[in-house]
Inverse folding.
């Protein structure tokens, strides 16, 4: 089965930055549509960013737009999330996910993802 492993989370002060990484064992990573999601205590898991195989189709949640940047390195089977100008409301467990669809498209529906990482905690203090 596919394994996704997130790293890079931790405590950070408001206004600071973190870079999350997601290493994938998917044999088809080059073709995988990928996404970052987050879940805060008492809230539903929500989309943060989604990206297709060529990085020419990218979607961001309105709450992170202009602050977060999602990228991927297909040669390294790795997905990244650069988080800047962090706010306390960004505090959550961040999850990497992949979708079993054509990598031509960008996938924004949580139900369309079939593999998930274990999550990495991001805690932003004010």
């Amino acid at each position: 089965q596919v394994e996704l492993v997130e790293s890079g989370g931790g405590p950070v002060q408001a206004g600071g930055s973190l870079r999350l990484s997601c290493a994938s064992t998917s044999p088809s990573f080059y073709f995988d549509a990928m996404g970052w999601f987050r879940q805060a205590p008492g809230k539903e898991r929500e989309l943060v960013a989604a990206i297709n195989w060529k990085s020419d189709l990218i979607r961001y949640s309105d709450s992170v737009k202009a602050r977060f940047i999602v990228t991927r390195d297909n040669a390294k089977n790795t997905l990244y999330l650069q988080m800047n100008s962090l706010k306390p409301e960004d505090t959550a467990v961040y999850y990497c996910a992949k979708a079993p669809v054509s990598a031509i498209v960008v996938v924004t529906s949580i139900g369309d993802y079939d593999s998930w990482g274990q999550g990495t905690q991001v805690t932003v203090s004010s």
In short: The chain has a mean pLDDT of 95. The two ends are 40 Å apart (CA to CA). The CA atoms of residues 57 and 126 lie 33 Å apart.
